[in-house]
Amino acid sequence: MKSVYEAKENCCGCSACFNVCPVGAITMQPDEEGFLYPVINQSECTDCNKCAEVCPIRSGKNIKAVHIPKFYAAKHKSEDVLMESTSGGAFTAISDVFLKIGGVVYGADFDAGFKIVHRRAENEKQRNRMRVSKYAQSDLGNVFLQVRDDLANNKHVLFTGTPCQVAGLRGFIGDSPPVENLYLCDLICYGIPSPLVWKDYKDLLEKEYGGKLTEVQFRSKMVEWNRGNSNKSFMFKTSNSDEIHSDDRFYKLFFGAKTIMRPSCEVCSYTDIHRVSDITIADYWGIEKYAPEWMDARGVSLVMVNTAKGARIFKKCSHDLNTEERPAKEALAEQQRLSSPVKFPENRKEFWDKYRRLGLENYFKLNE
Q1: pLDDT below 50 — which residues of the chain?
Q2: Which terminus, N or C, of the chain has the lesser number of Cβ atoms within 10 Å?
Q3: Cα–Cα distance measured from residue 319 to residue 93, given in angstroms and rounded to the nearest whole number
Q4: Whole-model pTM above 0.85?
């Protein structure tokens, strides 16, 4: 097989093909925008077609929940959890269900250099590193193989990721009996920013402020939780001082200009209410309009319960959450990615041409 995908719009980078290849002929390699794509070593490929069969886009398998989900407002009862979470702490409550029974949790984490990677957690300390938002595509590595091994060892597994990552794992694991112990949690995703731009942005911050980055936080709770503040709250520290700095230039490229998202995001097939997961979590934007008594500057979560498995888990974590079922129309009005993919601007190609020619620092200077 020459390629798993026909065009870059048809590859979400989920890594299912890389993990399923029986002879290791596939590697995930970055393109000029920093996004990982599968590359097939033709001399090793046996044309078994497993990569195409497992691909959530190419295979065309319908793995979405068929029932209409139930929508909930949720807020963790612990103030400490609220302050350390991106929104209302729903992820902590859900993942605690698994940690308390000796299960494992998979989610996005930072490595030592603040590269975003997916990791395995089997205790609270490891899990807590996954609680906050991380705005670049995570490197999944061989996580799908780890999940399969955990399931084979009768572990209860919670995997959290973007809808396309969840779909890739669903295709990779298949319908074998151990899948009963696999629980999937996806996010309402607004697009996946470039890991390359994120890396160059980190390097630029270290150049401008001196030292090495020692702390990074997207969506910091140092400012009040609300939609208006969601793209104004990137905080960081460097080794030069204990001062907390704030910068919004990366947010402007992501939320504002919408120029640094993966090509597949514009044609994403997971932007509706029929989810590929058991539970979906997000911010409950607009709660101040629909239920002012719920509004909390520390955050409120939207939880969509999509399957019977999801309902069981949500019930088990209810003692840690204040919850209320809400009308679907509220989330549909506020969460655009429940109805359609993100629309790229006409100048996306222009941005990348300037980025490659000038570099990020000079691009920012020209657009101040």
Answers
A1: none
A2: C
A3: 9
A4: yes
